[in-house]
Amino acid sequence: MIQDASFWSTLQGLEKECHTLPMQKPLLPGFLGPDFANRLRARFADFPVIQGWGLEILEMTPGQAIVRIQATPRTTNPVGGIINGGVLASLADMASALALSTAFEGAMPFATSDLGIRYLEPAKGAVEAQATVLRLSRHSAVISCELRAAGEIVALCTSHFAIKLKSDA
């Protein structure tokens, strides 16, 4: 997890926003409003991982998100042009967080509580992470994420998130 000042500042902003909004019902299965995806993109645009590694948010629909990263000198191991495993785990975490963000209307503070990833193939070039909310309850969520390079699955990830509801404050 990223632990720099801008990350925590963003999280605190989300928490404040959550406390000013009435409790929202999950949107799953529902409709992602016309402005909602753009607001999420704007909220996540300042995350250091998105800026520093050049992550691209390709698609967001209720309960799903697709994020892409390109192999660059910042994201690859020194030999072979293979994207670093930690970078792939961060990509999966970001896609999973975005997928979960689409499950609620308004802000809902949450944090990754567990992330397991299986690397199947070395990843070169562009990698797309497609995350899907599998299970959602009042206090937790389970997200699956497939990472693909050139159409082939290079890693599989399952994440668990802890959700903090306004009523839990």
List keywords for this structure.
169 residues, alpha+beta, Thiol Ester Dehydrase, Chain A, six-stranded antiparallel β-sheet, 4 helices, 6 strands, 33% strand
Structure in a nutshell:
The protein contains 4 helices and 6 strands; from the N terminus they run αααββαββββ. With 169 residues, it is α+β, with helices and mostly antiparallel strands. The chain has one domain (5-168): Thiol Ester Dehydrase, Chain A.
Fraction of residues in β-strands: 25-35%
State the helical fraction. 25-40%
CATH class: Alpha Beta
User: What is the CA-CA span between the terminal residues?
Assistant: 23 Å
Tell me, what's the shape? globular
The assigned structural class equals alpha+beta
CATH fold naming: Thiol Ester Dehydrase, Chain A
Please tally the β strands and state the result.
Answer: 6
Specify the oligomeric state: single chain
The CATH superfamily name is Hotdog Thioesterase
Radius of gyration: 16 Å
CATH architecture: Roll
Strand order of the largest sheet: 1-2-4-5-6-3
Q: What letter string, H or E per element, gives the SSE order?
A: HHHEEHEEEE
Count of DSSP H/I helices: 4
**Largest sheet descriptor:** 6 strands, antiparallel
- What's the rounded overall pLDDT mean? 79
Uncertain ranges: 10-31
